What we know:
The protein has helices at about 30-35, 45-55, 70-80, 105-110, 130-135, 155-160, 180-190, 215-220, 250-260, 265-275, 280-285, and strands at about 1-5, 15, 40-45, 60-65, 85-90, 120-125, 140-150, 165-175, 195-200, 205-210, 230-235. The protein is α/β, with parallel strands linked by helices. It folds into three domains: about 1-125, Cobalt-precorrin-4 Transmethylase, domain 1 (3-Layer(aba) Sandwich); about 145-245, Tetrapyrrole methylase, C-terminal domain (Methyltransferase, Cobalt-precorrin-4 Transmethylase, Domain 2, 2-Layer Sandwich), CATH 3.30.950.10; about 250-285, no CATH class. It is elongated and about 75 Å long. It comes from Spiroplasma alleghenense.
Amino acid sequence: xxxxxxxxxxxxxxxxxxxxxxxxxxxxxxxxxxxxxxxxxxxxxxxxxxxxxxxxxxxxxxxxxxxxxxxxxxxxxxxxxxxxxxxxxxxxxxxxxxxxxxxxxxxxxxxxxxxxxxxxxxxxxxxxxxxxxxxxxxxxxxxxxxxxxxxxxxxxxxxxxxxxxxxxxxxxxxxxxxxxxxxxxxxxxxxxxxxxxxxxxxxxxxxxxxxxxxxxxxxxxxxxxxxxxxxxxxxxxxxxxxxxxxxxxxxxxxxxxxxxxxxxxxxxxxxxxxxxxxxxxxxxxxxxxx
Length: 290
């Protein structure tokens, strides 16, 4: 478990800075301030980034950082952070990490024992869920934004049962429900499921927590959850150990009961899947394998 209070520590920081997708005037004041203040800027193409930085009279060392040298840049970035340097990562256009370099680097840094000695945050990355997604280190794969987490237990079960392998799921949750939702996830997800909890994104109290589903109970029991502000949750489920609402044997049994009550197979499967929040196609396959 790793807890980062972004703006309340003196640690060197990696800033993932969003840049204009076309019009150079789309830069935010905050982006300009950060790029002006950091010690180094890592960018896809130094020529492209030079045009942007020159436009805003930003003069900082540029280091090429693209998909062909991302792995080799890891040690240089770690060295700079250990020297107390602040670093910005930008792409040619748009947000770093998503379909751009950065995902592999962040994954390695986050899993490094020295990760506690520096911070990672996003600047000018659009909505809160994108900020959290790129900071998480999970974003080198497919992602699915769910909006606000559904308040109905049946719908929550349905969402969980439709999770797919190697997909990052992101949702918003209110301060009044975050504890309950985290408990639900700890009970339903496999213990090795990866989770990021983001709070107060871009504000002075911004906080990120990286943990596994098996660590949620400890996180809550030790009162490390600050129940203030709005929350974003990013997770990658461990598919092998998802805790379904009912076992496979019970699913088949429920379908058989409905068939014995007069429904045909298709209708029975549809009714059971709806009642227990199950994936209808998966239940169909399961029933015909019995």
